Amino acid sequence: MINDIYVYDDIIEKPYQELIKETLLGGDKPPGVDDPDEPFPWYYISDITDADHESTFQGRFGFTHQYVTPEDGIVSQFHSLFFGLIQNSCKKLKIKEIDVLNGRSFLQTPTNISKDDADSPHVDMIVPHFVMLYYVCDSDGDTLIYNEKTKFAACYPDSEMKFTLKKKVSPKQGRVVLFDGIHWHTAQQPNHRVRCIVNYDLRDLSHVIPGVRI
Asked: Checking DSSP bridges between strand 176-180 and strand 130-135, what pairing results, if any?
């Protein structure tokens, strides 16, 4: 179980960082890296934190790419790009065996939305998990992690619920933040640069009773 919020810079080596950035965002190819078999596809979503409109719809559009879904498992050939990133993150937490429950990336373009007007608080899943959030490039649009915790009844809070900030993390290429998925969290909108993240929800199998699956 993760009892704190952990932030690590350069969780992977610089050439690996550049490979991820070049694959997801284009640009100059890192030396010695072949072109991918096909371009990386992004898919439009009408709200970056609530594509299914389960909460108050903010209409803050973005783009996403799903690597793993809870229902279908691996759904993208690009999932393998992040094996090393996941392994390094788990080593930092001394976690030896995991389930990958969910994996996706998000891409946002700059807006004029105030930093005081953050996106909707949410949790990624309604089962126990920990979050691996990796920043593909330097940007603004900080991640906000709150003290308040969910009881895993829903992915979005009641409209009257109040939140107090536990930690703010700024996007920096090569940085990863790891935290218990029980914490409500969200992000600010970027104002100056493209914001791109890799977001995996993982389960530590050392906390799963043998024979019992969630």
From this structure: antiparallel
Q: What is the three-state SS of the chain? A: CCCCCEEECCCCCHHHHHHHHHHHHCCCCCCCCCCCCCCCCCEEECCCCCCCCCCCCCCCCEEEEEEEECCCEECCHHHHHHHHHHHHHHHHCCCCCEEEEEEEEEEECCCCCCCCCCCCCECCCCCCCEEEEEECCCCCCCEEEEEEECCCCCCCCCCCCCCCEEEEECCCCCCEEEEECCEEEEECCCCCCCEEEEEEEEEEHHHCCCCCCC
Q: Residue with structure tokens 């791109």?
A: 196
- Give the integer Cα–Cα distance in Å for 3 and 176: 16
* β-pair type (43-45, 165-169): unpaired
In this predicted structure, the answer to whether residue 31 has a pLDDT above a threshold of 60 is no
What digits encode the pLDDT tens for the residues 103-158? 999 999 999 888 888 778 889 998 999 999 999 999 999 999 999 998 876 666 66
CA distance 80 to 74: 10
Beta bridge pairs of residue 3 = none
